[in-house]
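Q: What structure does this chain adopt?
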Amino acid sequence: MGFIPKTANAHILIDALRLVLSGGVFVPVEFSAGGSGVFRPRTGSRSQELGLTPRQGDVLKLLVQGKPNKLICRDLCLSEGTIKVHVSAILRALKVNNRTQVVIELARRGVRLDATAVRAR
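A:
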């Protein structure tokens, strides 16, 4: 999990991939509010701790995997309109404007979501 900007050079890209593959989260220094850009995530954060409903937590887990709304609605057996409502609520709860910022905010908070916990209705 993390965010690698298109402007990153090859050295940064390789270091970021190594960090992610070892279980860390990479966020560039310019996005980490003055930090080092390296985060060690907590695992199993509950959706309620983020101010989300359990179903919004399910959507969030698929969202951070990079899935578009269409695939999220198929995985959770929900309508695309319902997914859009959940995504909007997630963005509001995390005080961000887009999906990339969701990943950055979760990394900043040290949150790592358990992807296996997503349940279908």
